[in-house]
Amino acid sequence: MTVAQHALLVMDVQRAVVDRYPDPAYLPRLREAVDAARAGGVPVIHAVVGFRPGYPEVSARNRMFGGLLRAGAPAGADATATAAAERATAIHPDIAPEPGETVVTKRRVSAFAGSDLDMVLRAGGIDHLVLTGIATSGVVLSTLRQAADLDFGLTVLSDGCLDADPEVHRVLTEKVFPQQAEVTTVADWAAKIR
Questions:
Q1: N or C: which end of the chain has fewer CB within 10 A?
Q2: Residue ranges of the Isochorismatase-like domain (predicted)?
Q3: Residue 84 domain-assigned?
């Protein structure tokens, strides 16, 4: 019998995203999961959404990201505007990667879309993902579906995910996700790996 190699996937916990989902208990709870993973020898992988200058990866037809094309910085934007944009899309400092931790940049909602996540996981022998992130109905749902189709084992830390709509979060974590993943809490998962 082989033992599954797990990785904790922390998704879209970037300053600009965190600011849109105010929950003062979320980051400390997520930090507990990150600390437990590090202490237990479980790799922590951060997935962030990002685009090249000028957003060449974004289609105007894309309802979620197409607005970036209309709201983008004007030609000749100064260094201050660029620095502000980089700060907004940076991983929140409360769960910032440690040296040696992998950060993948995705171009759409799923952590796999437009990133090298699958290659990183397979190269590392990782076959089980522990999912956390913002939002439950966005990156977590999309990544869970794609990871399941790629035959990864899955765990979702229900309180390590956050959504603007508590009812949507509840339905996903209690009814939808259990069809493809084990769903548990940060505290219960952390107790198992320490």
A1: N
A2: 7-188
A3: no
